[in-house]
Write a structure and sequence with these properties.
Blueprint lengths: L1 E5 L2 E9 L3 E5 L7 H5 L2 H5 L4 E5 L18 H14 L5 E6 L1 H12 L4 E7 L10 H14 L2 H4 L5 H9 L2 H14 L13 E6 L5 H10 L3 E6 L6 H4 L1 H12 L5
Parallel strand pairs: 3-4, 3-5, 5-6, 6-7, 7-8
Antiparallel strand pairs: 1-2, 2-4
Amino acid sequence: MASVVRAGSRIEYEVTGDGPPLVLLHGFFGDRSTWHAAGHVGALADQFRLILIDLIGHGGSDAPPDPARYQMGEHARDIVAVLDSLDVDLAGVWGASMGGRVGFGLMARFPGRVAALIAGGAHACAVETDPAELERETTLLREQGTAPFAGAIEPDWMRRVVLRADGRALAAQALSDAAEQGMAPELDSAPVPVLLLAGERDPRLHLIRVTASRLSQAEIVVLPGCGHFDTFARADLTVPLAREFLGRPRP
């Protein structure tokens, strides 16, 4: 475990494995431990130098109260700070759900730092937010933590991660997301190869397809019979796709 401080907040990360650097970015409610639990670290550490980052407000990283600190641009700068601390100029990035959106934010602002991006269950399109539902969810998170959201979550290891997550930080993240949703225009021409992994049953599959159509070097793989979380949890399906994509020769 290591850490770096940026903008007054400590970002915790770990490094394992050997090979080209690959940053792993967890989803909302998650932390870097989920990549271990779902099997990605064990499957990839023989081929890549894995850089697992706890995004601000998650895991062992600090949880500042200001929603502005949770903007995608802030997350992107945090990742660059971690890469700089490791003397890594260029890395592959694999982001799950929210981590995929952070990956798009990194690609838009720092395309020269991203060798290739895998985005699982993630899109970069604007989504209309119901203010009443947002208020309900953020109030629950601030007042009761994550327990009201954990009941139906499977598998058990993910439920445990959700239960230890910081509800106030997640509320700040949700408010930040609602305020800045939309596809950054810089993504259209960013010269970064992108693989979008989408579940056939993901309710936002159409937005993932739209995102793929907007990017200059994107491809999409739809996983039959899978939902949103499967694009992360089904490492048996996604790791072979990731190995092939990341292993391609690049100009």
